[in-house]
Task: inverse folding
């Protein structure tokens, strides 16, 4: 069988990740960690700067819930949860025997993809809002989107910790449970994606800071959960978090400037 000369070319080996190689590199845990590190730092430092003695009051819901679960086992250090996120990605990277090299081109590409998918999700929300108005649901588009925003300090936290909980943790666990029950791989993946997407939406209506339930908001959050779950499976954890955070910031800025 003839070998590929380009694969052995020193010139090609020295080039940064691009093309087909980029699609693989962008999914690797180390690339995800480096890409998400600024979001993690901005969120945690922001909590310290603006939260004061009542930092829990401005934490994202998923962040708050996971910290509460850790406290039930006696773990109260505020840096434990972000440390666990870093640790999970590093252990995943080592276990997968991935390369320790991450190019700047890969990180720039991940940022561009995050923005692209965030804009796409905004478009999905626009079309859903128009559809609900046509059906006489009585839910103005701006009201539906406004209900999905959070205080500025929680934007990055929602993008990060909701994806940690629902996609990085629950989706694989759900898939493994189904596979253990001898469900086919494809069916397991579909059910895991749908189940965690519905759970993602439902979680927004639980707790002291729960949103008011409307069919519009629940449907959109379920669609958003489905969008993030498919993105997680296809493009990896880093881009999914980047998309989620970019969407929250984008919607927050649009709403602030429009009204």
Result:
């Amino acid at each position: 069988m003839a070998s590929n000369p380009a694969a052995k070319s020193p010139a090609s080996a020295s080039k940064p990740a691009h093309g087909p190689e980029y699609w693989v590199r962008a999914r690797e845990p180390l690339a995800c960690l480096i890409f998400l590190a600024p979001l993690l730092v901005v969120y945690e430092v922001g909590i310290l700067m603006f939260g004061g003695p009542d930092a829990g009051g401005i934490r994202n819901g998923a962040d708050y819930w996971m910290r509460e679960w850790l406290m039930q086992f006696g773990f109260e250090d505020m840096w434990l949860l972000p440390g666990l996120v870093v640790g999970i990605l590093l252990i995943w990277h080592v276990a997968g025997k991935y390369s320790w090299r991450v190019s700047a081109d890969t990180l720039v590409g991940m940022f561009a993809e995050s923005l692209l998918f965030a804009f796409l999700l905004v478009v999905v929300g626009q079309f859903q809002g128009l559809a609900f108005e046509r059906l006489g649901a009585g839910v103005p588009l701006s009201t539906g989107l406004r209900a999905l925003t959070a205080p500025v300090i929680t934007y990055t936290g929602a993008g990060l910790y909701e994806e940690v909980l629902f996609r990085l943790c629950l989706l694989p666990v759900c898939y493994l449970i189904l596979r253990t029950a001898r469900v086919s791989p494809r069916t397991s993946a579909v059910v895991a994606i749908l189940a965690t997407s519905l759970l993602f939406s439902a979680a927004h209506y639980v707790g002291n800071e729960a949103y008011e339930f409307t069919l519009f908001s629940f449907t959109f959050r379920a669609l958003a959960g489905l969008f993030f779950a498919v993105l997680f499976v296809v493009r990896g954890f880093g881009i999914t978090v980047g998309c989620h955070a970019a969407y929250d910031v984008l919607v927050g800025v649009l709403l602030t400037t429009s009204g």
